[in-house]
């Protein structure tokens, strides 16, 4: 079986071939500045070898998803899965020998690094019976194996660098053939780059990158200048899978294209300044205005004055007093009214309780039937929206809430209600309002506290969507 593919042609027009079987044992490093043709080279390599070997592409920019339809690759959107799902997918990919593209373009850089690291580590740790040969292509490898620390967390950098090191240093015995492409060798970790035996060096301008490229190609440093003069789509090639001496290669044509913006010039539309201004400014006034600021908290004097005015309302002696059942219903109505008032959770507990008792007296019910502690709990139930549940589920939620202190109960009830109704997971802003704070940090610590005490289990996918499970009730919110 012929395991060679044509990658392009040399300066004399002679075909330059690439031995894929040899590549599986010797790995490949591609370097070139942006616009030098790296992605075109990788696309040519993937297209020509698609029927020979399983392929896995780590695609941080979403450039290679167009391979899916013509060549049968499965596109995995990294933003829609969490850690466990990504690892499970990687294991199944090795088991079923599926060619896939892991698209990470919807993620921030740190999330891209973490997702790719978990995915590569799971490919590496697959059971021995699934060690089939795979080409693993990592575009923009300097992101996943940086030579030095950047703005990402140190834990994420180490996790990603470890996965890339395993791929290039120890992956061969497990059937993983690493193909890494980078814009700059100086930004790529040396222990990762050093494991490649095949090289395709494209145009680069910085002296440090030209010198390193020349060293890898076995060229004298005075010859490194020719790397700066390479045309787009031309590379200097060397390695056991290509040729024994450096040769200039013009990469051949490809059948698919990138989703990237076209680099050719496109003139702007020939509209007048007034017409363009009208298009840009149209209907801006109809956009939803920002939410109004929270109302300032009433002073003690104004609150006492309002309470006194309510207390002076004369009761109708002919109106019968409500029954005990009606009284409880009225109390629930008053609590919901209080909970729905703007800024209610930011008010002092004593002021809320006084307001509650006055409103109850206005409806001929003694608000003092609820002590302060019971008022806190029932107000939390109202803020959490438990009145939207049927009686059975309300009882389940309240039984679970007995283990939660009164000051933490409202955000917890909000989560429980969302899980019971399979609604979207409450975001930090809603939980912060229920808690009576504007600090997202306090909410993160609160959720950690709930999780450590076994009240909830959180899961966040790489797209930042959160779901929360309430294990004691066996229910989970929708992603939000």
Automatic annotation (TrEMBL):
Q: Which UniProt keywords apply?
A: ATP-binding, Nucleotide-binding
Q: Does the keyword Acetylation apply?
A: no
Q: Where is this region: Disordered?
A: 286-305
State the organism of origin: Altericroceibacterium spongiae
AAA+ ATPase domain sequence ranges:
24-191
Name the PANTHER family for this protein. HELICASE MJ1565-RELATED
Q: What is this protein called?
A: ATP-binding protein
List, alphabetically, the Gene3D superfamilies matched: P-loop containing nucleotide triphosphate hydrolases (3.40.50.300)
